[in-house]
């Protein structure tokens, strides 16, 4: 009994027709947003304390307007990039971005499968110490049905 209970959270709203994205974070790392037109990842400025630390915490919102068709959004727990191999090296955010970039031409489900495969291959027989949870969303067109998602 006792102790402090808290959780991190990221909330992302996507307008599939316009390609606009709005988000807020409560202590959770921001999503990885890949823009294939620029071959670059979009920097976001979300932040804030985890939920449950302060009762009256206010959270700021960040936005990305008009993400191009083909953009990929990956929201994940830190267990993805903190996954370790047998030599105790972390998978890292750079490897995660590499997988997104390499597979951005595929569907959201294909990107998710590639990420699972790459993390599993990297870790080998090392013991998993944290959850590895993520959602992949891809903007596929400008007609209003606009996004695909896959989760793991």
Write the layout of secondary structure elements.
Blueprint: E1 9-15, E2 20-26, E3 32-35, E4 40-41, E5 61-64, E6 72-76, H1 92-103, H2 108-123, E7 134-139, E8 147-151
Antiparallel strand pairs: 1-2, 2-5, 3-4, 3-6, 6-7, 7-8
Helix pairs in contact: 1-2
3D structure, described in words:
The chain has a five-stranded antiparallel β-sheet with strand order 4-3-6-7-8, with helices on one face. A three-stranded antiparallel β-sheet has the order 1-2-5, with no helix packed on it. A hairpin with a 7-residue loop joins strand 7 and strand 8 (about 145-150). The chain has helices at about 90-105, 110-125; strands at about 10-15, 20-25, 30-35, 40, 60-65, 70-75, 135-140, 145-150. About 25% of the residues are buried. Helix 1 (about 90-105) packs antiparallel against helix 2 (about 110-125). The radius of gyration is 16 Å and the shape is flat. The protein is an alpha+beta fold and about 150 residues long. The model has no long low-confidence stretch (mean pLDDT about 90).
